[in-house]
Design brief:
It is built from eleven helices and eight strands. By secondary structure, it is α/β, with parallel strands linked by helices. It starts with a helix and ends with a strand. The protein binds uridine-5'-diphosphate (UDP) and magnesium ion.
Length: 316
């Protein structure tokens, strides 16, 4: 397929990079990745998506695109839509026979690209995914948060995404299938896992960021975690029903006991029981409503049918 695409002068490999406030090191990142892929002597393109960066990332991208007009396509989103939406924009624009998704901070080592392409070419794999063997330098909260999230997701949905990263090579047919998924609440890793296809994994260690700081705030991460969990499992909703059933059993037992004591004229002085029951049931109801609310909010976002992102500027 590689040869065929090259013969027809089609782009063989698209490198999609979502960028958010990476102006200080973007040129260096581009040069490093470009050097690796240039040495492979294949037709390639870069798709840079500026995810509404508040700094001068877009100016840097424009400059790079002027210097390398034939290999850079770029779009600027009208505001910060989040990495998943930026990725989606990149995938829609990419025309390559294969698409490689990577971060714009060199935390996804470009040296893996030749190996990824080789695996795609040789082993019939449709998805080559880079798996983190260590998560690199991170705060304790992020580490624990990620562990917890993947453990819950694994229990709820049977998808084991532990170690998964967004550094992936996707065959054209995978990209086309991915783009057919019309949801607004995007969770790239989960969606690619859901797609299936033949996959091969290569391990990598996450190096430190080349510069700047992570664009993921705790709030953004929690939002993504909720999107991931609600999009890939409805088990929490069933758990509500389950806990309702458990409480029904308690209710019957306690009800019978109370009636019995009443009938034999020895009504319990159950003030503590009443308060405890009130509090427990109250909180359970609130939590259940909250869980239902989460799903409701997702449904609301989906039915509004808004575009997943808005493009404000385009280059090439
Ligand atoms: N990113 C983005 N939009 C955002 C946050 C991040 O496009 O709202 C990009 C960012 O520029 C980088 C990639 O997503 O290319 C990974 O982000 P980051 O390095 O901040 O995440 P981390 O490596 O800490 O998970
Ligand atoms: Mg990073």
């Amino acid at each position: 397929m590689l040869k065929e695409a090259e013969k027809n002068h089609n782009i063989v490999c698209s490198i999609v990079i979502p960028v958010y406030s990476e102006s200080s090191h973007l040129s260096k990142v581009f040069t490093t990745i470009n050097r690796v892929i240039y040495s492979l002597q294949t037709l390639y393109e870069f798709v840079l998506v500026d995810d509404g960066s508040p700094d001068n990332t877009w100016d840097v991208i424009k400059e790079l695109a002027q210097q390398h007009p034939y290999i850079i396509k770029a779009v600027r989103l009208s505001r910060n839509f989040g990495k998943e939406s930026a990725l989606c924009a990149g995938l829609e624009i990419a025309t390559g026979e294969v698409v490689i998704i990577m971060d714009g901070d060199l935390q996804h080592p470009p040296e893996l690209i030749p190996e990824m392409l080789r695996l795609w070419h040789k082993s019939d794999a449709d998805i080559v995914e880079a798996i983190k063997i260590s998560r690199g330098k991170e705060s304790l909260i992020s580490k624990i948060g990620a562990q917890l999230f993947y453990a819950i997701l694994n229990k709820l949905s049977a998808y084991n995404l532990r170690g998964a990263s967004d550094y992936k090579l996707l065959d054209r047919k995978v990209v086309d299938a991915w783009l057919k998924m019309g949801e607004r609440n995007l969770f790239f890793r989960g969606m690619t896992a859901w797609l299936g296809f033949r996959r091969v994994q290569i391990p990598f260690e996450v190096p430190p960021r080349i510069g700047g700081k992570s664009g993921w705030s705790i709030f953004k991460l929690i939002k993504l975690a909720i999107t991931g969990l609600t999009a890939f499992s409805s088990l929490p909703l069933h758990l509500i029903t389950f806990s309702g059933c458990v409480f029904l059993i308690f209710a019957v037992v306690l009800g019978l006991q109370t009636l019995f004591f009443k009938l034999i004229g020895r009504a319990v002085d159950g003030f503590t029981t009443v308060i405890l029951l009130q509090l427990i049931i109250g909180s359970l109801l609130m939590i259940s409503l909250g869980i239902i609310g989460l799903y409701l909010a997702r449904i609301y976002e989906e039915v509004k049918g808004r575009p997943r992102y808005i493009i404000s500027e385009k280059i090439n």
